[in-house]
Each structure stands twice: as structure tokens, then as C-alpha cells.
Amino acid sequence: MKVSNRMFTIGLISSWYTSNIGVLLLNKYLLSNYGFKYPIFLTMCHMTACSLFSYVAIAWLKMVPMQTIRSRLQFFKIATLSLVFCVSVVFGNVSLRYLPVSFTQAVGATTPFFTAVFAYFMTFKREAWLTYLALLPVVTGVIFASGGEPSFHLFGFIICVAATAARALKSVLQGILLSSEGEKLNSMNLLLYMAPMAVVFLLPATLYMEENVVGITLALARDDVKIIWYLLFNSSLAYCVNLTNFLVTKHTSALTLQVLSLSHSHTTCYEHACYFFSWNINYL
User: Fold this and answer.
1) How many CB atoms sit inside 10 A of residue 68's CB?
2) pTM score, two decimals?
3) Cβ-based burial of 148 (10 A; exposed 0-12, middle 13-18, buried ≥19)
4) In the chain, how many domains are there?
5) Residue range 171-215, pLDDT digits in tens
6) Residue 2 resides in a domain
7) Is the N end or the C end of the chain the one with fewer CB atoms within 10 Å?
């Protein structure tokens, strides 16, 4: 039974890696071939697809039972998760306007540290002391890098740290919603409720930061209709990313998820795929 559970977890992690890499490559293709420079709008498309696919999977295909929101507190937790996710994406993109890519990557490497801290204060979950000890060199390295960075910008650094903390907080919050007794949701239902809220939060950011993006997308589609199919496939693959993200969190832990993100590549985590999109924009 333990071997079966272990193989199932390995399969989940492999699916998570594969779908993340697929989104990353598609983002790169959209940027290289179409000059599509709108990561926040693209994330909103991803969340829209997650809403639709989750509803089809639960309400039509009956893959899992439909779970209702049981309390205002549970609704507040889901809304907070959605907001924190949106903050991580938007702040991550804003920070790249002020800081070089290498430095944002260094700051992002502290995500497991923030995850461990949030998990301790919010769930009273203590990791082994060796785990905390292993995270100290990362934080120390970022402090030294901040002092020696020639392009250091205080506002950009604060926004970058906030984005990093938001990614960590998101992992902890989703872990609570997936495992807490009395308010536990399965992964599909959590995505069903979280994704539409994220669309609502991302919409004003898209309209403000990526002006006339819908008109530009339609103009690109008139020149080459294949971009619509790429966007649809990209958004569909993002559903797999988010669903496996929740499943990996449920079957391992929030801290494990963040360590896995760093051990594979800092840019393979879902929010980081959006940042990778922006990094390329900076060099155009």
C-alpha cells in the first residue's frame, strides 16, 4: 500500500512538472511568434479555463461529488487564496520593471523559507530543525546579494519580496483548504471556486496594466487564427498545472511543493511561468 501511494505521488509530481513545462514552452512560442506580451491577461485566460473545466468535470462528468461552501469563513479563505495568487502574479511582473531577472530569481529562492514560516504561524506545523537550518544559507545569500546588486531598487525589492511571500502564503492556504477538518475541499472543487474569483481580481489589473489587450488579440487572430487555438490549448494545459499543483500539495506539503519548484527550475512553477513570459518581454 505504501509503495502504491508512493508511486501515485511520483506520478502526480511528474504530471505537475510536465504540464508546467508545457505552459512555459507555449508561453515562449506565443511571445516569439506573435509578440504576445500580456502575461496577466494570459493568466486570466488560464483561470477562465480552470473555471469551465472544473465545472464540466464535476457537474457534467461527475468525476467527483459537488461540494458546497459550508460557511462564510470557508468562502473568505477561498477568496483570500484567489487574491493572494493574483497578487503573486501581478507583483512578480511589476518587480521585473525595476530589478534584473537574476536578482528576482535570487529573491524567489527564499519561497521555501516564507512557506515554512507561514506554515508554522498558521497551522503550528513544525519542520525538523535541519529543515530550517538548510533554509538559512538561502536567506543569507539573498541579503548579501541585495547589498551588492548594482541595479538595486528599493521599491522593486519590496514588491519582489511581497510576490515571493504571496507565493508561499498561497501554498499554505491551499494546503489548509485541502486538508482542514470540517472545511476540507477536494482539489477539483477548490479550483472550481478559486478560479472564478481569480478572474474577477485579475480583470481590473489586466485593464489597467495591459490596455486594449482584447483588441490586440483579436487583431492578431485576424492575421493568423492559429493564435486562438494556441491560447485555448495553453489555457487548457494551465488547468492541468493548477489541478496537479493542488494534488501535489495535498499528498505532500506546501513546503515540499516549493522545494520541488526550486529543485527542478525556478521558472517551472505556475506563477514563475508568467514571470518567464515577462523576462522575455524585458529583452524585446
Assistant:
1) 8
2) 0.83
3) exposed
4) 1
5) 999 999 998 777 789 999 999 999 999 999 999 999 999 989 999
6) no
7) N
